[in-house]
Amino acid sequence: xxxxxxxxxxxxxxxxxxxxxxxxxxxxxxxxxxxxxxxxxxxxxxxxxxxxxxxxxxxxxxxxxxxxxxxxxxxxxxxxxxxxxxxxxxxxxxxxxxxxxxxxxxxxxxxxxxxxxxxxxxxxxxxxxxxxxxxxxxxxxxxxxxxxxxxxxxxxxxxxxxxxxxxxxxxxxxxxxxxxxxxxxxxxxxxxxxxxxxxxxxxxxxxxxxxxxxxxxxxxxxxxxxxxxxxxxxxxxxxxxxxxxxxxxxxxxxxxxxxxxxxxxxxxxxxxxxxxxxxxxxxxxxxxxxxxxxxxxxxxxxxxxxxxxxxxxxxxxxxxxxxxxxxxxxxxxxxxxxxxxxxxxxxxxxxxxxxxxxxxxxxxxxxxxxxxxxxxxxxxxxxxxxxxxxxxxxxxxxxxxxxxxxxxxxxxxxxxxxxxxxxxxxxxxxxxxxxxxxxxxxxxxxxxxxxxxxxxxxxxxxxxxxxxxxxxxxxxxxxxxxxxxxxxxxxxxxxxxxxxxxxxxxxxxxxxxxxxxxxxxxxxxxxxxxxxxxxxxxxxxxxxxxxxxxxxxxxxxxxxx
Length: 561
Prior knowledge:
Layout: H1 2-18, E1 21-35, E2 38-45, E3 54-57, E4 61-68, E5 76-79, E6 105-111, E7 117-123, E8 133-139, E9 153-162, H2 167-177, E10 186-189, E11 205-209, E12 214-221, E13 227-232, E14 237-242, E15 245-252, E16 255-257, E17 262-268, E18 275-283, E19 295-301, H3 321-328, E20 352-364, E21 374-380, E22 383-385, H4 392-398, E23 430-432, E24 435-438, E25 443-450, E26 459-463, E27 468-475, E28 494-495, E29 497-500, E30 504-511, E31 516-522, H5 525-530, E32 533-538
């Protein structure tokens, strides 16, 4: 009887645990898609564009077995998941792992902590993420609630860049020639190009709604190089979360969302029964502008009558900087029980300060395909990142020398008028694989200074392994004596990807309490490809609970090893 009872108890415990553990199978291979009246072969997951959605609860653990059945290697990153003490499964190629080779598989263990709401996953090799991506939905924990009216339903909305061509080949050709990659041929909503591009076979995304119901839109900007405005005609949007953290609710006619960012938005179907456009259009304040296309979807009431009217789409102009600032400046942390307790490092806490300039640059072009003596490059603090052939995490953990150095500059090597007229300024950058290194528990302040070098413009900067407090924003050159007085240390947003404005700066703060190697980079893929990135290494603490987990035995082998 005792043995029977123990057996039943053990089985019950396993069943309870298994409810919080999820398993997914990703089969990554080439498939054909026809858009813009053209058929293109893309690398995708489970033959779908976008890829399959992961849907779990807060605090769960997820195992994803990734099978590479395609023609080239890649990795996958779980964007916005902190992976506490677990950098081995974060995913960026040659940062935390070597790529998954064709004909092999690799199972990721994804450990959720305080993330809540909408995140996403995507390939993190070359430009493969253009077609290898999908949503990562984190519902409230069992028996927990939303800090806003419970929606009747939710809808994932993924904003995408569409190219007629293979994404990897597009960037490979551009890098070999030393030129900028071409702009997108179209934009898509959930894989649909809408009705504005002139191809009669293109499809339009349709979201069907019931009158007076509340819907939670889970909006993900998976575009390659474009920040996007989003709107639904005649409907008010209520922003409730960004980057898997709840924000103070506010109403708006549109949102502006950067590549890498996610936003949760409520919309009430409270208008006359009919069909209404949802639409996206890029935002840009750069001299290197994206294609100014409007892509449409349909917000359709059941039992509707009547057609659509394209002239009613109320999107800002592509270069409307005021519209961008008016939106992002409304985002604030909200003190609700579903959020982690606010913990902004105070002025007296800060013991690591970094002032990092963001620039596009040039470097000598030395390939036979070069179209000129110089090639496009990009940098942080004038260091253009060089990807190694052995992942930095392995090199750091095993003390392998010659892979990276621990001397990323905490300040610009040269101070100049970063936001002035730089027409005749030397744009050449240095190269290196140089890491930022801090101690476990350090209170970090990072000021990102956008420069006018190259095309200038804004940059969406993403830090892996952390959510950080966005405490400040300003125009011109950052002044370390006067600008900190403008910081918001009361309710700054807790995010993982920040919009650093053209000819301006943003300030971030966080406690470095996640040991490991974490990538930081611009989420414009062309800039990341040119070297606008670095790594943050957080040393182990003094206990097991403050130290990295040991590596799994199944890590993909590096090429040539």
